[in-house]
Specification:
This protein is α+β, with helices and mostly antiparallel strands and about 130 residues long. The chain has one domain: Roll (Pnp Oxidase, Chain A). It has five helices and six strands. The strands form two sheets. It has a four-stranded antiparallel β-sheet, sandwiched between helices. Strands 3-4 form a two-stranded antiparallel sheet. β5 and β6 form a beta hairpin. It comes from Nocardia seriolae. InterPro entries: F420H2_quin_Rdtase, Split_barrel_FMN-bd. It catalyses: oxidized coenzyme F420-(gamma-L-Glu)(n) + a quinol + H(+) = reduced coenzyme F420-(gamma-L-Glu)(n) + a quinone. This is F420H(2)-dependent quinone reductase.
Amino acid sequence: MGAERKSVVFEMFGDSDWFAGVGKKLAVADLFLQRRTGGRFGLLTLAKLPNIVLTTTGRKTGLPRHACLIYVPRGEDYVIVDSNWGQSRRPEWSANLLANPRAQILERGHRTEVHARHLTGTDRDEVWGELLEK
């Protein structure tokens, strides 16, 4: 599925109520597959979307928390956006990163320690512009 086709699919279903319910179930299934295969396979991989399993530290519990995310490569960086599929509140993984920016990424079987940086101002504008071009 090409980038244009994916965009059309997300535009058609992204903000629908039924997709939100289905999307949550798919996210659980994707995380199960990703963790079971060591990050080598999941639903996002099947859809040919660049993806990672992000492990953060729960800001309230201190326990590891995992989320499958689509990312955009930018040089050596992984750009992730906390859009939460258009919902009004930010996703838990984002709030966890704001509380503790140390995290781990699992991508295609490789684990990498990372330090997140919340982009603001001109940095955010520059990266956002690049994302919109892709």
